[in-house]
From TrEMBL:
Source organism of the structure: Planotetraspora phitsanulokensis
UniProt keywords, alphabetically: DNA-binding
Entry annotated with the keyword Glycoprotein: no
InterPro entries: Homeodomain-like_sf, HTH-type_TetR-like_transc_reg, HTH_TetR, Tet_transcr_reg_TetR-rel_C_sf
DNA-binding region as annotated in the record: 32-51
Listed name of the protein: TetR family transcriptional regulator
Superkingdom, taxonomy of origin: Bacteria
Example GO molecular function: DNA-binding transcription factor activity
Gene3D superfamilies (UniProt xref): Tetracycline Repressor, domain 2
Domain HTH tetR-type: 9-69
Amino acid sequence: MDRRARRREETIREILDLSVEVMAEEGVAALSLAEVARRMGMRTPSLYQYFPSKTAIYDALFGQSARDLNETLHKATAGLDALDRLRIGTLKFVEWTRLNPVRAQLLFWRPVPGFVPSAEAFAPAVDNVTEVRTVLEDAVADGLLHPGAATDEGVALLNTLVAGVVSQQMSNEPEAPVGEGRFERLAPTVLDLFITHYAPHGGGDQP
């Protein structure tokens, strides 16, 4: 990129980072473009040169956050076997949400009334779900899990269990040091419950 394009990209990143900062202080739905502009040292109308609306900032943050989460998980699980990818990926997911509570709320809850991410911003989130299913399918293929684990119901159960850990931690102990929260420490146990339920022979109440 030329100098002007690089400068624009840097400004966009700064706007998004400051937006997260404001949301952390005031609440995800309480993002103020005027406050972001003030912290940028510019007038509010100048912000519209980069984002036409508050919704556009939410949309950019959604896509950016989903991509960052995917990259974090890929880096942590590269080269591991299926069950280790599942275990390490789950722990990294929980850790990422603790380190990025504002972004996690935007991705996994509905804190902004009426906001729906664009197809482009939502695509990395779809990739994440696809990757989870692939890990489960690999574990089934390796004889490590019952085939039910890789069904829609299995994926939904895993997401529900992990989301429950994250939700409880964020709701009840948001200030606990990362890795030390009493709910997030349950993540390995919750995952063991899932793996036991979908044991390769029997699979809990699966056929």
